[in-house]
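During the practical work, I selected for study one protein's amino acid sequence and its backbone structure tokens, as given directly below:
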Amino acid sequence: MTTPPTDLARTRQLRVHEFLTARGWHLEGDSDPAEAWFADDVHAGWHYPASYGGQHVNEVADTAPVQLQSYFTFGDGGEEVFSVTPAGNLRGSGCPEHDTQEQFFPLTADGEVDLDEIATLLDILEPRARSLDPRALIECRYFGPCTG
């Protein structure tokens, strides 16, 4: 059984939720960032629906391109971190330009997510996600790495 998060953890989760939804992101599934289990739920997080110009891409595990997404997870030492995964092909499939290269952000000394740092990154990743063509990503993955 996991220990329920402190009020700080709930506040952190809600601050991230407000920050991302104000940018047009959607909460993933039925998860609730005010719930104690949110950071422990592997399905909890957010996605950027404007990825691929808003085109729907069927989700096929480890096969289809993924939307720009973020979530809380745990680092190698078991510490809680915040993760941002760019839109693209998972796990180095295809060329470096179309790879997702998940990025992890440790919590600050105050136990917060540095939203200024995340905003700077999203200012780059959101326009990129909107402009990506899912067909080009699929071709890159299955017919050989392209040049981006």
Q: What stands out?
A: The first strand starts at residue 26 and ends at 27. Residues 115-131 form the longest helix (17 residues). The mean pLDDT is 86.
